[in-house]
């Protein structure tokens, strides 16, 4: 049988500010869910649901250590996002170049 597609893609996963904060926290290293959950004004169950979305998008991996579940960032799927944003950088670069030119002309 064929490979099943993830339930969530990277874009859906990072759309939520809580999940973006989770990724930021995990960027510093692996953390247990108990430590992660105290960083948010929501229940541990709610944090776990956000972590599940990130895991289904391939952005985090979990592992059991005794009775504890630890999560770590998997940054590779973010490359898709980086490539998508890179396309639009030329528009930002053009706007910044035009602004620079305008400011320099005003100062002369």
TrEMBL record:
The HTH arsR-type domain, residue ranges: 1-93
Gene3D superfamilies in UniProt: Winged helix-like DNA-binding domain superfamily/Winged helix DNA-binding domain
PROSITE patterns per the UniProt record, alphabetical: HTH_ARSR_2 (PS50987)
Pfam families: HTH_20 (PF12840)
SUPFAM superfamilies cross-referenced by the UniProt entry: Winged helix' DNA-binding domain (SSF46785)
A GO MF term: DNA binding
UniProt keywords, alphabetically: DNA-binding
Protein name: ArsR family transcriptional regulator
